């Protein structure tokens, strides 16, 4: 493998948005069953040491190059103690504070940008593993590749994990300058917004402040509610999140609501790296019922072309690559500054049969980073329940807990 590895257009997009006070990390919360002996941090480190050389994915590093286009390099060695830490907390709220710390802290650029945190809850004796990965290295759809480091079966023996470890990094096909310019023009028109509230300057500092919340709703409740409304799962979650946002933050109701949602360009869902692009829905600024909001979402989806939007994003990113790196960063941050209010992802969560360090994974909650200053919502469908992780910058949206309250009431209430 070459000493330097090019970033894909989607890798570059996420790296351009990353500064110390606005880190582009995502976190996956893996709740472990309580059977058997407690997992020790030494067990986690030993398993990492055993598996880390089985894939180059685990050894990719993003050295800091302030004025030049970054490249991946391959680490010659990895210290498991730096990639696996532990914390003791009083309760689940303490665990969520650890998630906030991980989401708000920039990752080292002199080591592979991933790590595990083992959290011990004193009240219930529960143990939780927090997987954190920089978005330039991988999207959340490929999280199973990192979980593969810790599963009890021989790494690579399970196809469910192998496809996220050994497949080539995802990349959109070659784009010529004319196609990149056309895609950039369409993307600019799409994201342009009247009355932009925020400038493009990223926050200054050595870390960010993040606030998170979570809810869980039975999958059957979601199914029954969406069927009554004549909506798909995605349409239902977009509508519920949009109405909860309007109720929690009425001061933002003076203009149409914009929802950004990920669109995977990898139809096989078997990749390493980044394959999740984005599309945008714009909804009317007034909706007093969930049925009305579902209708708004369906109408907006019908009017738009999400796949076309998603294909334009990496082409636009490729077009920026002709500029100096600092200009690429500035333009990308300008686009993301105030282009949407909500980012909502709806994905099936992997449910491995393999045990992880002797334990079953009983629940999974996802938290993805904000591209701008929107409210980030991640819904994962796992067996009999849907978990939803939410994150916000309190300087922009001061009460993510209020949004979670409205979201729960809407999702468990009668339709």
Largest sheet, spatial ordering of strands: 7-13-12-10-8-9
Rg of Cα set: 21 Å
Number of strands: 13
Shape: globular
- Number of helices, where a helix is a run of at least 4 consecutive DSSP H or I residues: 13
Low-confidence stretches: none
Sheet with the most strands? 6 strands, mixed
First-last Cα distance: 55 Å
Provide the residue-averaged pLDDT: 89
What structural category characterises the helix and strand content?
A: alpha+beta
- The topology string of helices and strands comes to HEHEEHEHEEHHHEHHEEHHHEEEEH
Strand content: 15-25%
Structure description:
Helix 1 (9-16) packs across helix 11 (306-320). This protein is α+β, with helices and mostly antiparallel strands. The chain has helices spanning 9-16, 41-51, 80-83, 92-104, 144-147, 159-162, 177-191, 219-229, 233-248, 290-303, 306-320, 325-336, 400-412, and strands at 25-32, 60-61, 73-74, 84-89, 114-121, 127-134, 211-218, 257-264, 276-283, 342-348, 361-367, 375-382, 385-392. The strands form three sheets. It has a six-stranded mixed sheet, with helices on both faces. The chain has a five-stranded mixed sheet with strand order 4-5-6-1-11, with helices on both faces. Strands 2-3 form a two-stranded antiparallel ribbon. The chain starts with 8 loop residues before the first helix and ends with a helix. Strand 5 and strand 6 (127-134) form a beta hairpin. It is built from 13 helices and 13 strands.
Key attributes of the depicted protein:
415 residues; globular; alpha+beta; single chain
